[in-house]
Structure formats: structure tokens, C-alpha cells
Amino acid sequence: MRVARFSHNDTISYGIVDDGELVVLAGDPLFAGFDTTGERVALGAVTLLAPVIPRSKIVCVGRNYRDHAAELGNDVPAEPLLFFKPNTAVIGPGDAIVLPPQSERVDFEGELAAVIGRVAKNVPAERALEYVFGYTIGNDVTARDLQRSDGQWSRAKGFDTFCPLGPAIETEFDPTAAARLTTRRNGETVQSAPLTDMIFSVADIIAYASAAFTLLPGDVVLTGTPAGVGPITAGDTVDVEIEGLGTLRNVARAPGEG
Questions:
Q1: Across residues 197-222, what is the average pLDDT?
Q2: Measuring CA to CA, which residue among 173, 174, 206 is closest to residue 59?
Q3: Where is the Fumarylacetoacetase-like C-terminal domain (predicted)?
């Protein structure tokens, strides 16, 4: 099942994608289930929004692909390297990544995102995927120069617009299958790797994170990026595609641009 969050006639709703249409849901399926209103809306008539706005947090994993750790000159971590993004960083498909004036180097990082569906605390890895509502695509946008100069990652990873998510949540996606993640900058492929190249699996990450802090419904877990990250400048288009999940597209712009 593919679930989208969308705007139509000045109203924000959730719907199940069905053959070019959206079956409108009565509420947020994370909390209200899948009861429908009986209404159907054409996909072409709506504006897709970020499929989830985390009420609590976005948990991210650094250096979860060996080739990405190597390209930045870093060692592979022995355990998942966790950090957070604020929920104010989230934008949806088609929204603009705003390049902050504080940074001279902003990078794209295409990633698989897992959306938590149940309260998770001290979850064993063998049961961790039971706590996932579904999967979508993320872009862990990073001010690379500030990441290096600050000595920690909160500002570099947390600017407004630095967490594009979308286009929808797929509840039946299998993160253990060899689906390929591909990122394109202005149509040129810059990242391409199977999700099976992750060092720590989605289940490993959820188990590790939930041993430290409680994961709540609507929390998003970004699972790391493969090699090929690079800078974006105003006007660049970034497409992150994952087989089975679709394509997330965003355009970079300078502050103040429309």
C-alpha cells in the first residue's frame, strides 16, 4: 500500500494511491488507521507534500556505506553513528532546498527512510521491522563545510529544508531486498548502490537506537548514503530514486529566490 499526504482545495489530507487516484483517508493513518471518506481525487489534481512530519525526531545514521566513509576519509564505525535532524528541516517533493548563506558547500545525500509506526523501546533486531509503518525516500542535505568546522553536526544537518522526504510511504517495501538507490544531479547519475550495501541494516539501526531512546510513531530513521555525494548550487535539480519507492525531486535555490 502506498500512502501519500497531499494538499487539495486548501485542505491537507492523506490518501492511498490507487491507479492514478488517491483514495482519501479520514485521518493520519499512523494514528487513525485506514478508514476512508469515500472520496477519490486524481493524483494530477493535488500537490504532494512530505508524507510524514515527525512529531518528535529524525534519527540519522552516518557512514553506513563503506564507500561513502572512504570518500570522506573516515573509518567505518563499529556501531551505528547516530545524529538527529529537527523536524523543521522536513520538506516535500517539489519543494526547494534553500542554500543557507552561512555555508559555501551544501551536499546532497540520497537515502532510504523508515517511518516508525509503533512505540519502540529496547526492540531486538529480529523484531525491529515490525515497528516500521513503511518506507520512503530521504535526502540528508548537509552543509559540508560547517560539518567539518563545527566539530559536531547539528547545524550542518539541521537547516530548514535540509530533509526532503517523499513522494509517498510504501508499507509493503522490503528493505532487505536488493533495491537500488540512484541519485541524479541535473540528470547525471552521481550515486548508485543497492541497499544491501548498508553496513548496518534497518533492523540493526532500530534496535541500536531504541536501546538508547524511545522511538515514537511518526519518527523517521534515515539509513545513510552511498558514495557519490557532492555539492549543489542554486538551480540544481536533485532526484533520488529507490526501486519500489519512486523518485523524490527537489531544486536548490538561494535565499530569497522564489
A1: 98
A2: 206
A3: 57-250
**3-state class (DSSP) for residue 157:** helix
Q: What CA–CA distance (Å, rounded) separates 222 from 205?
A: 10
Bridge-based pairing of strands 58-62 and 220-222 is: parallel
Q: What is the CATH number of the domain that holds 130?
A: 3.90.850.10
Under 8 Å between Cβ of 169 and 115:
yes
Distances (CA, A) of 255 to 13, 95, 103, 247: 29, 13, 12, 25
Q: Which domain holds residue 160?
A: 58-253
Alpha-carbon span 176 to 194, nearest angstrom: 10
Distance of CA 117 to the CA centre of its chain: 15
What's the domain count of the chain? 2
Three-state DSSP at 160 gives coil
| Per-residue pLDDT, 258 | 66
Give the C-alpha separation, 134 to 115, whole Å.
Answer: 5
- Residue 229's SS3 state is coil
The verdict on 180 and 238 lying in the same domain is yes
pLDDT tens-digit series, residues 156-168: 999 999 999 999 9
For residue 208, give the C-alpha cell: 541500536
Query: pTM above the 0.90 mark?
Result: yes
**Contact by Cβ (8 Å): 117, 131:** yes
